[in-house]
Amino acid sequence: MNRKPLVSVILPFYNAANTLADALASIENQSYDNFECVMVNNNSSDDGANVAKIFCEKDTRFRLVEEKTQGVMFASNKGSNEAKGELICRMDADDVMAPDRLKWQVAFLLNNSDYGAVAGLVKYVPHKEDTDGFARYVDWVNSVQSYDEIMLNRFVESPIVNPTAMWRSEVAQQWGMYRQGDFPEDYEQWLRWLENGVKIAKVPKEVLEWNDSDGRLTRTDDIYSDEAFYRIKTEYLSRFLAKKNSHHPSVFVWGGSKISRRRALMLEEFGIDIKAYIDINKNRQLDKEVIFFEDIPESDSCFVLVYFKHNEKRKEIKAFLEKKGFTEGDNFLLLS
């Protein structure tokens, strides 16, 4: 390579010999060519390292490094530390880039200097028939595209699919990369960057074929469990409420189900007081006051957290609250 790459594609892999060649070929064949690909072997015991070496031998834009500490967080950070580019692009070893992905995302960041990162939409490729829940997440995450939408929805689910992201290296230097902990490292990073004012949006195009599998870490590692997501989500949410809720530490929770209450009660560990629950059942009896939804207080007298799993129900409640004079982000937020 005779020029410094503008983009460094970081691809950690562990025992991915069956999918790695397709992932690397999709990078090699990008319409934008000023990139390097830093492949990080994380103690693979299969033929993955040899697959990576073949690409190194035929294309000088590909480099292979090793990370002995086991874990995608360590491997990803190793790749970032090795990167030469001003823009860092994440990629997983079992996914496939759209041919113009780098071109689209580079153009966005070059044309929008106030943005620190850009992501994109995904084409979901299920591994079996019983994946409706994951497919619903993909539909939702693909609908969250602008910076404002990402900010307002960041406490619903992770609003960014990690391997679709590209960011400025200076952002990672200022606010840090993935952190180790009992939480999903990518979601925590997005929450941290957004909390610190990093603007993130998506190009409105499918940048990736996102291949699901039984072995995907989000299905197998405890740090990606529902409990882990809600714990880190609640920590960042509590700090948001401390800054933005004019009635702090008091909130109203819309969602009286057992699972909604269990998730909302995590807030109390961070000093948030659940003043009352809002419910569609007039006669609901809980351990706190229950307010029938039509009797909800005026918008200037409370902050409402809407804990509902299903997106359509959240949309209905959002429409109801806005009709009552509530403003999303100012006196209510949607969660799941």
Summarize, please.
This protein has 336 residues and is an alpha/beta fold. The chain has helices spanning 17-28, 48-58, 72-82, 101-111, 132-143, 147-153, 169-175, 185-195, 217-220, 226-244, 258-264, 311-323, and strands spanning 7-13, 35-41, 62-66, 87-90, 96-97, 117-125, 166-168, 200-211, 250-254, 273-279, 289-292, 304-307, 332-335. The chain has two domains: 7-224, Alpha-Beta Complex (Spore Coat Polysaccharide Biosynthesis Protein SpsA, Chain A); 226-335, NAD(P)-binding Rossmann-like Domain (Rossmann fold).
Describe the protein's architecture and organization.
- This protein is α/β, with parallel strands linked by helices.
- It has 2 domains: 7-224, Alpha-Beta Complex (Spore Coat Polysaccharide Biosynthesis Protein SpsA, Chain A), CATH 3.90.550.10; 226-335, NAD(P)-binding Rossmann-like Domain (Rossmann fold, 3-Layer(aba) Sandwich), CATH 3.40.50.720.
- Helix content is 37%, strand content 22%.
- The chain is built from 12 helices and 13 strands.
- Strands 3-2-1-4-7-6-8-5 form an 8-stranded mixed beta sheet, with helices on both faces.
- Helix 1 links the parallel strand 1 (7-13) and strand 2.
- Helix 1 packs parallel to helix 2 and helix 8 runs parallel beside helix 10.
- The longest helix has 19 residues, at 226-244.
- It is elongated and about 70 Å long.
- The model has no long low-confidence stretch (mean pLDDT 94).
